[in-house]
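Q: F0F1 ATP synthase subunit I, please. Structure only.
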Amino acid sequence: MPRLTASHKKGYKNNGIKAYEKNKSSCADLTNRIVSNFVQDRQRYEAGLMQYPHLQKPAIHRVIIVQSVMTVLLSAVFFLNNTTAGLSALLGGLICLIPNTYFVARTFSRSGARAAKIIVMDFYKGEAGKFLLTACGFALVFALVKPLDYAVLLGVFVLVQAVNWFTPVLLKIRIS
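A: Structure for F0F1 ATP synthase subunit I:
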């Protein structure tokens, strides 16, 4: 292996410093470009010119719309048969629909990684509120509404609640 003289060592050292300085400046340029692009993208996003589909809120309102339509249709079908059954169907659908609407409004009002703890707390509070609203709905209907078709009330409640089973399918459907 050849020995390096002092002049060779000095040349390597100078070349190393130049390479370091070059990399340092290119690293700073790269950082500036990344920050600049991020700021520009953020401004375009806020102006509505750019979309981040992976960051958009889920279209959970579709579940509420389907539950509303199902409540109205089932109520109409039962009203044709009997007004007591129609009223029971409407109340059964509303007992399910109102708490679910509360849950969706409470839970999906925030987004972002900074709000993660708040979002988790909103899920718990939303679910507790949904449970209480459902229990109060049944209690009020059983106490105040006479005559009532209990089978229709519970049947429509279960059918409207079953829409939640299809939430993943409803969220994948793209409506243009």
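A: Brief note, in case it's useful. DSSP finds six helices and no strands in the chain.
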